[in-house]
Protein 1
Amino acid sequence: MLGRLARWLRALGFDTVYDERLSDHALVALARAEQRVLLTRDRHLLRELRPAAALEIQADAPLEQLRAVVRTLGLRPPTELFLRCLLCNTPLEPASAEERATLVPPASRDLPGPVRRCPGCGRVYWEGSHVRRMRAALDAALPGWRSGGGALE
Ligand SMILES: [Zn+2]
């Protein structure tokens, strides 16, 4: 339900578990065991299972949800964006020259910016149009956060 919010949080580098297969009870237990803040739209879950640390998400738009999380939890802008896999949450590693040559499409190979690879799922990230669109959307939602290192005072 909050999959897009999870991707935004990962883009900002925040360690974010998202697994639709987990039951409500398993979610609450995982959050408690790993000292995570449970983000949910499910008021019933909050009332019945009383997670130790939780935030109810009320907005519908993912970027509005992100703003609410950043504001409520007092999150700070990261020094750099896109250091964590959007799909599986694993910290990314720099791609080798060989990986760059074989995994990035020819049209994108000469783009400036880093190329990173996920050691978890193998996905490769570069500064293509998708990343640029995400930076622009982030700039509108959280001014100063797009390049990382910005201040939100
Ligand atoms: Zn991954």
Note: The longest strand covers residues 38-40.
Protein 2
Amino acid sequence: MKVILDPQAGTCGGVKRAIELAEKELTEHPKDVFVIGDIIHNEREVERLDRAGLKTIHRNELEELHRLALNNRARVLVRAHGEPPETFKRLEELGVEVIDGTCPVVNRSQELAQKYQQEGYQIAIVGKHGHPEMVGIIGHTDQKAVVVQFKEDVEKLKPGVATLVMCQTTVSQDWFDQMTRMIEARVGEVVVKDTLCRFVVRRIRKLPNFTGVADVILVVGGLKSSNTKMLHASCKAINPRSYHVVSPEELNRSWFEGADTIGVTGSASTPHWLLDEFVETLERWMARGWPERDVGDGE
Ligand code: SF4
């Protein structure tokens, strides 16, 4: 049995940049660096940065920052998902140093939504209710954009009104196209802007090159990560022996029965060190024997 690592796997540019910004700030100001919400949708990376001193706060805790910062000089990192303009305004009023880690791709979506909203368009964003990226984009439309996640959401749009349809950067192309057709059927002609992240689109397009050579696929990524869920669903559609895993302790020996090749991949929010941990664990178990007791239950 051999283990292969997907050559395309590893964090995207936006996530990588936010993590590098956090690490740089932590080196210079180890006690006073905060991030609004989990810096990345990956529990293991959040734990690692938490151990390094990064403090995660909720948007409604901003008023507490001066009390929480040990040296009274809080620095707040905005993660790759971005924030609504009100957050930046409040941070400025509080006199807090802001490190803007908003991904440039997300920034473009925010600007696009804002521009069309100011021109009088109704904005429909295909994506998930409450997802932090959506919260940030909606904030750029004075809270007027309509999230379209379910069929019922389409009914919230006004028929016969000039409408822009865009999407959360990490949804699937099929879902975006499907929802766009439903929106058109409700409101009439629409302006469609494909705001999918090209990094994610390319990953999905090239996925069969990798999944085709593995008998079992491990999709490593956080439980809250939309991108990991979509990657797992795409892998599973090609190979039913695909498992979404967060930590090596979840591996179950029965998954690998009769397999010659195990493929390890990860989403845009899965750091390389975590992928390596899976590869090394599997190789160690293959060389020295699998642990007596399996912890994971499988899916
Ligand atoms: S997945 Fe794309 S949009 Fe999201 S942070 Fe990464 S590069 Fe930016």
Note: The chain has three domains: 2-10+206-288, 13-102, 105-192.
